[in-house]
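Researcher: Dear colleague, please comment on this protein.
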Amino acid sequence: MSAIVAGTAAPAPSAARRPRGGLWRAILHNRKAMLGAVLLALFCLLAAFPHLFVPWLHGDPRTIGDLPLQHPSAKHWLGTTGLGQDVYAELVYSTRESLVIAVVAGLGATILSVVIGVSAAYLGGVADDVLSMFTDVFLVLPTFPLIIVLATYAGKGNLTVIIIVLILTGWAYGARQMRAQALSLRNRDFLESARVRGERRSYIIVVEVLPTMISLIVANFLGAALYSVLTAAGLQFLGLGDPNSLSWGTMLYWAQNQGALVNGLPAWALSPGLAVALLGVSFALLNYAFDEISNPALRPVRRRRAKSAHS
């Protein structure tokens, strides 16, 4: 996840209340953001309406054919599996579960990061010490071995368990960023004014602090979603997911188990891996783009270089 330097000056309160169109205009003028948004929109379309892309199966990607382990052809664009199932159809229908894992786990990790990180910075004192120590413990834990242990013993094959495990192991880095940014805002004039007015702490955090951190929150969500989709695919590839589910990681698991590469069917093994990579690229590009959009130091430099190049 790309980090936003904690020392960067926080935006003025008025910047958090700028018209929404300003953010969309910034995305439209950023090539990375546009490419990432187009890729993500394509995956969302595949997840929402998979039957439109595989109309000949009538919504049943598990249809067993009589031609197992077939090479790509006009009838089966990516070949067939060991049971004669169409690889392209499975790839399209697997988009939904993979995208759900990325979005739900990314959103859960982001919410946990915001709650713990911002609360630690604003409350200070003992609360800050306890929450910071809690965050540090999760930061130093060996993540992937912990994920394997939790996913194995908490409920192998259970999608809900996998999502919860991803949330529990993916929030700490974002919480550290949130705390650092919130610390730079804690003594700003607009927060002091809210305290003088007698506003509740919850009101100050939600209404005054969080709107100034929208770009960082979005960047953390995109980074957490990227982490979730890659880690979930790795878990499913190792056989820790539901082998009967439709997801890219499960496709990789069966392709490896049934010797896709040995049988000369690279499309079966490579297509889900490429799909995971492209979804990860979409989140990564949007993440980098939000770093550029939210960091005022990057935009003038780019404009000056563009002007000097034209001159």
